[in-house]
């Protein structure tokens, strides 16, 4: 990280590693592991950005009360966060409670292709689940847990530690496939379902009207007190961004058979320009510009940190080390961020996904996003810089001229820390 010239690093704490049993003693080895990591980062001038929940929660919560499907998890998640704030908060100033709240709910409880693998969609072979209701229940509990943790931090820690609390979502750059009114309306509906689902409560205290009307009684309701707690509970919005998609209005009527799910509720046809497990990626910087403009215009221009942005390349590809497509991608998207800042977006930080190759939730070890390759057959897991690592390091040192010296100076003054 020092060689690359990073001044910030984002990582996630594993709840299971820290508290193996519900309300049981803290695992001291797990605690020391994170303390060592945080101390090493700080000693090298690298700001730690910590995520508390990144798609994993302890199995005992799943066994005891079905995890995020049960409101009881709000209390347990708050207790876990309390341990983190108490033990690490003197050195950690940026906390993201939930990583990709929308995708965790959709992937784990609608599609069934990510943990905990619940769904009721025919052909998905899920053993348990209800895609009609569970994604919305889980999303609701994620927001309530975030609000509870935010309240705890502000009451007990913020004055002393001076940190910030955020919530992250995955965003897609949506654009209508034609100039028709139907496709324009469908694009707004996609934004409401995919982005507004979490942003609406965080900024305004409730779900978008479109969602409430379509989902109806399956949509959980915030009490007045809960609405006030969720509203304004994020000091910043975390944006993870990779993809662009065109939207076509679906002519299918909403299902009346009871076999509804998130996608039938959203009721649009998505045409992606790439996918997470593919090395065929279109470079579409307009997508990140569209997302940041949407957040600015529709949600009051809150502070934004881009917590993930990057491009996968198959690990068996000849491009693995000389990953020029990744460099082209990063150049274009960083340029898009600069353009958005110039247009008034309150974007304050940017993180490449990822520093090193790792196990991907979509694609496993077959694809790599890392600036550094990892030899997974080597017991020492040797890391080697790819071409993109050299390029990114030069960029952070101000040696890369693709934005021009003025552009680099602008970015570095707006994105602080910039990693």
From TrEMBL:
Keywords associated with the record: Disulfide bond, Glycoprotein, Glycosidase, Hydrolase, Signal
As recorded in UniProt, its EC number(s) are 3.2.1.21
Q: Which GO terms describe its molecular function?
A: beta-glucosidase activity
Q: Which domain of life is it from?
A: Eukaryota
Listed InterPro entries: Glyco_hydro_1 (IPR001360)
An example GO BP is: carbohydrate metabolic process
Q: Which reaction does it catalyse?
A: Hydrolysis of terminal, non-reducing beta-D-glucosyl residues with release of beta-D-glucose
Q: To which protein family does this belong? A: Belongs to the glycosyl hydrolase 1 family.
Its protein name is beta-glucosidase
Organism source for this protein? Arabidopsis thaliana x Arabidopsis arenosa
Q: What is the lineage of its organism?
A: Eukaryota, Viridiplantae, Streptophyta, Embryophyta, Tracheophyta
